[in-house]
Amino acid sequence: MGIYNDIVAKQKSIAVIGLGYVGLPLALEFSKKYKVVGFDINPKRVDMLNRHEDPSKEVEAHEFENGDISFSCNLEDIKNCNFYIVAVPTPIDDAKSPDLKPLIGASKTVGKVLKKGDYVIFESTVYPGCTEEDCIPVMEKESGLVFNTDFKVGYSPERINPGDKVNTLTKILKIVSGSDAESLEEIAALYGSIITKGIHKAPSIKVAEAAKIIENTQRDLNISLMNELSLIFDKMNINTYDVIEAAGTKWNFLKFSPGLVGGHCIGVDPYYLTYKAIELGLHPRVIAAGRYTNDMMGAHIAKVAIKKLINNDKKIKDARILILGATFKEDVADIRNSKIVDIVKELKSFSVNVEVVDPRADSEEVHEEYGFSLEKEIGKGYDGVIAAVSHLEYKNLTEDYFKSICNEKSFVLDLKGQYRHQFKEMEYWSL
User: How many other CB atoms are there within 10 angstroms of residue 343's CB atom?
Assistant: First the structure.
């Protein structure tokens, strides 16, 4: 093999572009065997990484040790690399259309340092065709090189699960693809040297892109079904989690749960697929319906809380509601696309006094992104509590605890159903 053997011999090196929850673990894992430069356009992030601090709080300080790696935001430091891995975010804009600015920016960056014989691998989640139709032309223009003649390209979708300490990078089977047969083998060899779970070689870049995007679209649709069922069962006075527990006794029942669908994957990726489908003249009704259901759940939960305040004879403008959790999922620090914000906005539109706490999230970051700050500690005298994120710190809370921080005639909305078997006196509700 060509470039892979040179990387093994440390005659050539790897650059990882984008050092977030995907790029950083990948860069550190490769650095255990190869020479790596971690590149990010955020100087503050690079400074933290040089101090062995992960801004995402996913990687421990000791994991930075014993690796052949340097971190930089200087383009000069990656110009001598030969294998570029792009792991930048692919968010959506306010109109819920793909925002490719970070990806196109990264493609321009790579194009400026691209040389004959180099490889570029994309890990960012995109719609099928994006790598070849959007990214490669940018790199060709910036570099003056010809795709597949002067440089090769591949796509290997990230499968990082934030907060999961069991299914980590090396233990998750990796899909790889290349722009030709030779590049596929080189890319498979490189990733295969660190991924213990194994490699799946996709027949084309488009297939690999499509495989990634349907993973999260499938989860989104399954969760939307559970959310719709929770709306129905609520009208029937049936606890959805009890129903799921009973139905889950059948061997082929898929135990998805209702809840808020945020973050930078499940709540975003389906929009990339629907965007491309519409561009091709198709209208994906099923995917769009699932997205609509999941996107309205935050407002629905807030309205449940408002109704309970009214039923409890509380004056809305004087009411205080505590929300436990601000991140997009449990046991992570990431607040991107957190649907807790939808609950806060809806409650505040009714002039309810809302206090949000989260032991994982950064208050300054929350304020910068969403316009409200986190409380430093939980107070007393609440008229309702919304247990929104099931952080480990909240797992063992009891009815007595909730009673101690709440007024008379208060309620607990338990979005994850984790406390449902212990409430005897307080008003309790779950999805």
Answer: 28
190-202 confidence digits (pLDDT tens): 999 999 999 999 9
State the pLDDT confidence band at 1, using cuts at 50, 70 and 90.
low
Beta bridge partners of residue 86, listed in sequence order:
17, 122
pLDDT tens per residue across span 385-398: 999 999 999 999 99
Nearest to 225 by CA among 251, 255, 245: 255
The overall longest dimension of the chain from CA atoms, in Å, is: 74
- What is the spatial distance between Cα 340 and Cα 374, in angstroms, rounded to a whole number? 12
Rounded Cα distance, 38 and 31, in Å: 10
Alpha-carbon distances of 381 from 191, 301, 319, 376, 404, rounded to whole Å: 54, 21, 9, 16, 9
Nearest 5°: the CA angle 253, 221, 256 is 35
What is the rounded CA–CA span in Å between residue 153 and residue 83? 10
CB 420 within 8 A of CB 429: no
Q: Which of the residues 130, 135, 265, 406 is marked catalytic?
A: 265
Where residue 272 falls among pLDDT bands split at 50, 70, 90?
A: very high
| Residue carrying structure tokens 């994309």 | 122
CA 29, CA 57: separation in Å to the nearest integer?
17
Q: Which letter does DSSP use for residue 118 in this model?
A: -
Residues of 42-56 as b/e, b for ≥16 C-beta within 10 angstroms? eeebbeebeeeebbb
Report yes or no: 273 and 202 within 8 Å, Cβ to Cβ: no
Q: Mark whether 73 is an active-site residue.
A: no
d(CA 21, CA 54): 9
As a whole number, mean pLDDT of residues 309-337 equals: 95
CATH architecture of the domain with range 3-203: 3-Layer(aba) Sandwich (3.40)
Tell me the CATH class for 224-430: alpha beta
**CA within 13 Å, CB half, 172:** 19
> 188 and 160 in contact (C-beta within 8 Å)?
no
What token pair was written down for 394? 């909240």
DSSP letter for 151, please: B
Mean pLDDT, the chain, integer: 95
- Per-residue pLDDT tens digits for 158-198: 988 887 788 888 999 999 999 999 999 999 999 999 999 99
Domain borders along the chain are 3-203, 224-430
